[in-house]
Every structure is written in structure tokens, then in C-alpha cells.
Design brief:
Elements lengths: L5 H5 L11 E4 L7 E3 L5 E3 L2 E3 L2 H7 L11
Antiparallel strand pairs: 1-2, 3-4
The protein binds zinc ion.
């Protein structure tokens, strides 16, 4: 009786190898997806893909300091 090695050739299904699940989009409107398991900026229930998105949403920006 021949022993099949097929299941070793293909390997076992990896439970971690599922598709990343997008749970929403960046609140700034850039369209960036918020994917479960990754780190983003969360503020007051809104998710932001990056600091630039957070600043844009709040109308803030990096700028050189100058006397007013
Ligand atoms: Zn954004």
C-alpha cells in the first residue's frame, strides 16, 4: 500500500493566512482603509491612517514658528 504524501506537499491550512479585514476608512476622506490588526490613530471614535490625515481633518498643519 502506497502512502500518499500529498498533504505534506501542499502543507496544512494556516489559520493566520486569512485576508486582512478592513473595518473602515480613514476619517479624513483620503480613502485609506483601516485594517484590523494594524496600528492607526484613533480619536473620539474616528480612525486616521497617518498623522498627516489627523492634522488635515482638524485643519492643523506643521509650520515654521514665527512671531505673530
Ligand atoms: Zn486619511
Amino acid at each position: 500500500m502506497a502512502i500518499s504524501l500529498d498533504r505534506f506537499a501542499y502543507g496544512l491550512p494556516d489559520p493566520q493566512a486569512h485576508e486582512p479585514k478592513a473595518i473602515g476608512k480613514c476619517a479624513c476622506g483620503c480613502g485609506e482603509e483601516i485594517v484590523e490588526g494594524y496600528e492607526y490613530i484613533e480619536y473620539d471614535g474616528e480612525w486616521f491612517a497617518d498623522t498627516s490625515c489627523f492634522l488635515k481633518f482638524h485643519g492643523a498643519e506643521w509650520r515654521g514658528a514665527e512671531a505673530v
